[in-house]
Design brief:
alpha/beta; three-stranded parallel sheet; 6 strands
C-alpha cells in the first residue's frame, strides 16, 4: 500500500513527522532490519516514541494524521479495471489499519491486512501494536489469501516497492516491482514504472 497505492512511503513515518520523532524511529527501524528486534518490539518502540513525546495520545489523533493521504497516480482507475476483469484486490501492508482501511475503500479492496494500534477503553494508545503483517512475512499472508480464496499461487499477482516485498513478489505467479529504488536481479520479478503497466500484464 505505502508507496504503491498511495504516494506516502510509510504510514508510520507520517505520524513520526507530526510528533517530531523521525530520527529516533530510524534507529528502531535499523535494529529491526538487522534482526536485533522483532516487528512486535519495533511497533512497541514506535508507539512509545509518540506517547513519550506527547503524553496521552488518542487514536482519533492518529486517524486524523493518516486521513490526509493521496492516492498514487492510477490507483483507483487501475484497481477499478482489475475488478471489472473479475480480479480481487487484497491489501497486504505493514502500515496502520486506520489508513489501510480508508485506502481499501478507495481502491475497491476485498480484504485489508494491516497492523493495529492497541487502545484502552477510552481510545487512548496503550503503547502496544497488534501485529497482523510482519514486513518480512508478507508472502505468508499471500499464501493464506490464496488458500482461502481457493486459487493457486501461480494465479496471483503481487505488487510492491520495497525490499520487504521481494519474497512476496517471488512467491506470486506474477511479481511486479514498482519503481527504481532497488536493483532487482530476480528473473521472476518484473519491474514496472507505474500502476498502469499492471493492466498490460493482465491483458497479456
Amino acid at each position: 500500500m505505502d508507496g504503491t497505492l498511495i504516494k506516502c512511503k510509510s504510514s508510520w513515518e507520517l505520524v513520526h513527522e507530526r510528533f517530531g520523532t523521525v530520527e529516533e524511529a530510524k534507529r528502531t527501524l535499523k535494529e529491526y532490519d538487522e534482526g536485533k528486534i522483532s516487528y512486535k518490539k519495533f511497533m512497541r518502540r514506535d508507539i512509545g516514541l509518540w506517547i513519550n513525546k506527547k503524553g496521552k495520545v488518542h487514536v482519533r489523533e492518529i486517524e486524523e494524521i493518516l486521513s490526509r493521504f493521496e492516492l498514487a497516480d492510477g490507483a483507483k482507475e487501475v484497481t477499478g479495471k482489475l475488478k471489472d476483469m473479475g480480479l480481487k484486490i487484497i491489501i497486504i501492508t505493514a502500515g496502520i489499519n486506520l489508513l489501510a482501511e480508508k485506502v481499501g475503500v478507495e481502491v475497491y479492496a476485498d480484504r485489508v491486512y494491516a497492523n493495529k494500534l492497541e487502545t484502552d477503553g477510552e481510545g487512548y494508545l496503550v503503547g502496544e501494536g497488534i501485529e497482523i503483517v510482519d514486513p518480512k512475512g508478507k508472502d505468508i499472508i499471500l499464501e493464506t489469501v490464496a488458500r482461502e480464496e481457493n486459487v493457486l499461487l501461480e494465479e496471483t499477482i503481487a505488487v510492491g516497492d520495497t525490499v520487504y516485498d521481494l519474497e512476496m513478489l517471488r512467491k506470486a505467479g506474477l511479481g511486479l516491482y514498482l519503481g527504481d529504488r532497488y536493483e532487482i536481479r530476480d528473473a521472476k520479478i518484473r519491474k514496472i514504472g507505474s500502476l498502469y503497466e499492471i493492466l498490460d500484464y493482465v491483458k497479456g
